[in-house]
Amino acid sequence: MVHRLDVGTSGPLLVARTVEAWNWAKDRIYKRDQLRDYVALVHGSFKSRNAEGGEGLEERGVVLANIDDAGYTKYSRVEISEAAGESATTFYEALAEYQSESGRDSSHGASPAAACGGQNLRIKSSKHMAAV
């Protein structure tokens, strides 16, 4: 095993079949040089803010916010903190939207995170999406 991609979640494990692959993957993780794509179910709506009286997120966008994981607990993973957090960027795009039987709007969104400028850009969907 090389790495659990998201410690503290049920996220995927990265497993190498050869020593060469293990060294390559370990090096990418150490240098924070990897792309992570996620698909998330988000409560709320991606209706355009520009629509007449429309509320909700744009269907595609970028969230720039500092993430602080110092207070990591069973119930809270990260907080947005300009003073103490690490720079993080989340790119998001709505894939689908539906209304549940209870009448609540929900959206399926793709939220890829990428590396840029030497910083590891991490996705922390709940906090980043709440910041928008």
Proportion of residues in extended strands: 25-35%
User: How far from one another are the termini?
Assistant: 36 Å
Query: Helical content, roughly?
Result: 10-25%
The number of distinct β-strands equals: 7
Overall, the morphology is extended
User: What structural class should be given to the helix and strand makeup?
Assistant: alpha+beta
Description:
The protein is 14% helix and 30% strand. By secondary structure, it is α+β, with helices and mostly antiparallel strands. The chain has 2 domains: 1-34, no CATH class; 35-131, no CATH class. β6 and β7 (105-110) form a beta hairpin.
Quick description:
GO terms for molecular function: pseudouridine synthase activity; RNA binding. The chain is 14% helix and 30% strand. The chain is α+β, with helices and mostly antiparallel strands and 132 residues long.
Give the helices and strands, then pairings:
Elements: E1 3-4, E2 13-14, H1 19-30, E3 39-43, E4 60-68, E5 79-80, E6 86-99, E7 105-110, H2 125-131
Antiparallel strand pairs: 1-2, 3-7, 4-5, 4-6, 6-7
Features:
single chain, 132 residues, alpha+beta, 2 domains, 5-stranded antiparallel beta sheet, two-stranded antiparallel sheet, 2 helices, 14% helix, 30% strand
